[in-house]
Specification:
Blueprint: H1 2-40, H2 47-62, H3 66-87, H4 91-95, H5 97-132, H6 136-144
């Protein structure tokens, strides 16, 4: 019973850690929507970039599993990178207080995601270790569908570096 309960606690810790990341990923996606609204007025000729942003947002909103969230996070990071890079071509946009505020909030969210990813990966590593060790493996497999869980990489998550002094 003790082994089973410990494994349940580890499984729940993995789920909770991912849920914490998912909340931040959704906040970042919401900020991306706000960023698009600020950018639209300046970038009337950048339809392709705005379309890519819309596709990335749709993928992020549809993501339900860590693997889907990881793919969508990569798309969102790419879309944001494109938006921030294009902002350099629009000095009025780069200088706007709304744009700068959104950029700061997004950078803060990405830093929090990176921190929480570390906790998620620690929880997953603890789970993966336990479900492969004796005697836990005897209980984890048949009773908890104890399979290894993948670590979360979330490529592209981190501070966005853009020179807004131009």
């Amino acid at each position: 019973i003790v082994l089973y309960n410990n494994l349940v606690n580890l499984r729940n810790e993995c789920d909770r850690a991912f849920s914490n990341i998912d909340v931040l990923l959704r906040q970042r996606t919401d900020e991306l929507a706000n960023l698009v609204e600020v950018v639209k007025a300046y970038m009337v000729h950048e339809r392709e970039t705005l379309r890519d942003v819309a596709q990335a947002r749709a993928a992020a909103e549809a993501a339900r599993t860590p693997a889907e969230a990881e793919r969508a996070a990569g798309m969102v990071a790419g879309a944001m990178g494109s938006l921030f890079a294009l902002a350099e071509s629009y000095p009025d946009l780069a200088a706007s207080s709304s744009f700068r505020m959104l950029q700061k909030r997004i950078t803060g969210i990405e830093n929090e995601i990176a921190d929480r990813r570390e906790f998620f990966n620690q929880a997953v590593t603890a789970w993966n270790t336990r479900v492969e060790q004796f005697p836990d493996a005897l209980i984890a497999g048949p009773f908890l569908k104890g399979r290894r869980r993948p670590l979360l990489k979330l490529a592209g998550i981190g501070p966005v570096k853009v020179d807004l002094a131009a």
